[in-house]
Amino acid sequence: MNDENKRIDGKAVAETVVQKVKGETEKLVAQSGIVPGLAVIIVGEDPASQVYVASKGKKAKECGFHSIQHTLPADTSEADVLAHVQALNDDPAIHGILVQLPLPKHIDENKVIQTIAPQKDVDGFHYMNVGKLGTGDLSSAFVPCTPAGSMILLRSVLGDDLSGLNAVVVGRSNIVGKPMANLLLGANATVTIAHSRTKDLPDLVRSADIVVAAVGRAEMVKGDWIKPGATVIDVGINRIDAPERGEGKTRLTGDVDYEGALENAAHITPVPGGVGPMTIALLMANTLTSAYRHAELNPPAF
Ligand SMILES: Nc1nc2c(c(=O)[nH]1)N[C@@H](CN(C=O)c1ccc(C(=O)N[C@@H](CCC(=O)O)C(=O)O)cc1)CN2
């Protein structure tokens, strides 16, 4: 297989998801008069968060949603953020609430997340949604956007049933590693979660038919860790210096050494243009799902 055919084009798959959300939104509005509503709260001026939040608002409008953004200064009190969340919980025009992470240090992220009404928690971070995913009760859950998007990319090359395949998830975060492991398990893969204290990580990764890298360390997973024929999903988005592009220039890279891994992998996601765009597309899908549930209609499957 040539290298170009190995690349999983997350941007293209995300666009397919967004087009489906758009079509299904039109159907929902025609059937029920309900317009999906998404509210995003951002606290502070983190430049990357500002870019992601702007993309979410733009995509929501493109999908035909009612889209609102609360931009709060970095010194906003925790009580004030909680009050904003409460107001959105009570707003019938809003079906999805997202608080952009990370939050400034003085705000307890978990307290904020647990204040979001579980039925509007389109990030899937509330204990109620975490528990439903953990027990395989997906009919009324929200699955976190990055792992849900990663599964769609995996399915696009491996199909729905991962029986007999060994998956290694490198990273144990609540946002990506743990939910990803649950989703892989739900698709019948044999799953290992690895982390900073795992012994002989390279050899463990060499046993994997599916590698999901979600550690947040630039190019930590090396090319010779990848088993020939494996599928690699790179969730990392790291900005590193790129002196080859000129003085002071930077570039984005994943948690995997892409060029090295390309030699062995059968399929691999690039950074940028892999998992990242799927995160935003799945946020749109989750918001649409929430609005369908609100209308007491069966949501479309993604
Ligand atoms: N409340 C949440 N906060 C955060 C989440 C989340 O899912 N919910 N995830 C990340 C950030 N994130 C979305 O919020 C996100 C990250 C990256 C991308 C993306 O499309 N990346 C592009 C590159 C973009 C660039 O040029 O910087 C890519 O990979 O191609 C989308 C969303 C943390 N916070």
UniProtKB/TrEMBL annotation:
<keyword id="KW-0521">NADP</keyword>
<keyword id="KW-0378">Hydrolase</keyword>
<dbReference type="InterPro" id="IPR000672">
    <property type="entry name" value="THF_DH/CycHdrlase"/>
</dbReference>
<keyword id="KW-0368">Histidine biosynthesis</keyword>
<keyword id="KW-0554">One-carbon metabolism</keyword>
<dbReference type="InterPro" id="IPR020631">
    <property type="entry name" value="THF_DH/CycHdrlase_NAD-bd_dom"/>
</dbReference>
<keyword id="KW-0560">Oxidoreductase</keyword>
<feature type="domain" description="Tetrahydrofolate dehydrogenase/cyclohydrolase NAD(P)-binding">
    <location>
        <begin position="144"/>
        <end position="294"/>
    </location>
</feature>
<keyword id="KW-0511">Multifunctional enzyme</keyword>
<dbReference type="InterPro" id="IPR036291">
    <property type="entry name" value="NAD(P)-bd_dom_sf"/>
</dbReference>
<comment type="similarity">
    <text>Belongs to the tetrahydrofolate dehydrogenase/cyclohydrolase family.</text>
</comment>
<keyword id="KW-0486">Methionine biosynthesis</keyword>
<keyword id="KW-0658">Purine biosynthesis</keyword>
<comment type="function">
    <text>Catalyzes the oxidation of 5,10-methylenetetrahydrofolate to 5,10-methenyltetrahydrofolate and then the hydrolysis of 5,10-methenyltetrahydrofolate to 10-formyltetrahydrofolate.</text>
</comment>
<dbReference type="Pfam" id="PF02882">
    <property type="entry name" value="THF_DHG_CYH_C"/>
</dbReference>
<dbReference type="InterPro" id="IPR020630">
    <property type="entry name" value="THF_DH/CycHdrlase_cat_dom"/>
</dbReference>
<dbReference type="GO" id="GO:0004477">
    <property type="term" value="F:methenyltetrahydrofolate cyclohydrolase activity"/>
</dbReference>
<dbReference type="Pfam" id="PF00763">
    <property type="entry name" value="THF_DHG_CYH"/>
</dbReference>
<keyword id="KW-0028">Amino-acid biosynthesis</keyword>
<dbReference type="GO" id="GO:0004488">
    <property type="term" value="F:methylenetetrahydrofolate dehydrogenase (NADP+) activity"/>
</dbReference>
<protein>
    <recommendedName>
        <fullName>Bifunctional protein FolD</fullName>
        <ecNumber>1.5.1.5</ecNumber>
        <ecNumber>3.5.4.9</ecNumber>
    </recommendedName>
</protein>
<dbReference type="InterPro" id="IPR020867">
    <property type="entry name" value="THF_DH/CycHdrlase_CS"/>
</dbReference>
<feature type="domain" description="Tetrahydrofolate dehydrogenase/cyclohydrolase catalytic">
    <location>
        <begin position="8"/>
        <end position="123"/>
    </location>
</feature>
<feature type="binding site">
    <location>
        <begin position="171"/>
        <end position="173"/>
    </location>
    <ligand>
        <name>NADP(+)</name>
    </ligand>
</feature>
<feature type="binding site">
    <location>
        <position position="237"/>
    </location>
    <ligand>
        <name>NADP(+)</name>
    </ligand>
</feature>
<dbReference type="InterPro" id="IPR046346">
    <property type="entry name" value="Aminoacid_DH-like_N_sf"/>
</dbReference>
<comment type="subunit">
    <text>Homodimer.</text>
</comment>
<comment type="pathway">
    <text>One-carbon metabolism; tetrahydrofolate interconversion.</text>
</comment>
